[in-house]
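All the exercises in this workshop are built on plain-text protein records. There is nothing in a record beyond a sequence line and a structure line. A learned vocabulary of local backbone shapes supplies the integers on the structure line. The question running through the whole workshop is how a given chain folds. Here is such a record, shown just as it appears in the course material:

***
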Amino acid sequence: MSPGFRAGPLDRDSRVYVAGHGGLVGSAIWRHLEAEGFTDLVGLRSRDLDLTDRQPVFDYFAKQQPRYGVLAAAKVGGIMANSTYPVDFLSENLQIQLNVMDAALEHGVERLLFLGSSCIYPKLAPQPIPEEALLTGHLEPTNDAYAIAKIAGIVHVQAVRRQYGLPWISAMPTNLYGPGDNFSPSGSHVLPALIRRYDEAVRDGLSEVTNWGTGSPRREFLHVDDMAAACLHLMEHYDGPEQVNVGTGRDTTIKEIAEVIADVVGFKGETHWDTSKPDGTPQKLLDVSKLAEAGWIAQIGLEDGIRSTVTWYREHVGDLRE
């Protein structure tokens, strides 16, 4: 435990800054904190506060003086975006993290949660992946720049703990999905991409859908509302230098995911698999035993989560980013 800090309930009336509250994860955290009785949440959209611009970030912290903070802001994207723009993913994420954490330190943020990604782990890490696998092997080349930025964030949190004794922590989520996700054809991850593909097939009256690969890779998916609940739980029950994996502890094949989505959206046609396209890593599953030891397990089942995400997608399909 950090000196002077004991894990326990956070003060619901203290100010909480959520960086990235307009994104998939940040918006879910904001909703969850409101539901849990927090009365003083602050945050600005990127158009109003560019977190890569250092001085305005410091000015914002000086004005707001938050007691707690969640760093959920990041430049994110799929494999294609990460492969094409590695400099952007490395530079912008490092700038965001440095500016927010340096400002939080200068202005006395007592408790900060930094959110990373499961891509921090080596490409050939053991399955399920334990926290101890960090920095034990080579990263997946397609998103190594993004991963390095997130690893730097973990080390930054650990350095603050060592040098200043503040109880800051890091959480590493598995693949997330849910309301507010990115459904764009070029920038989305696999689950929202499949939702869009099958829903468009239904609307266009298509009799078949073709997906990339064989459908055999296994992936773990966590609903973003579960992620938000896990974040608050960790802030109230965990204090340690090591990052904590956040996931369900269960994985599913891409083919099974596609079948669930097809059923939920009402697609009655045939699904084909283009095996000339790459599958990617055969399996990616997090070891969530540390999270379970802290007293938290996922609550939202995959089918229920997909159903709620499809509902949200259909309600917002007209104003989604492309």
Remarks:
- Residues 16-177+222-250+284-300 form a domain with the Rossmann fold fold (CATH 3.40.50.720).
- DSSP finds ten helices and 13 strands in the chain.
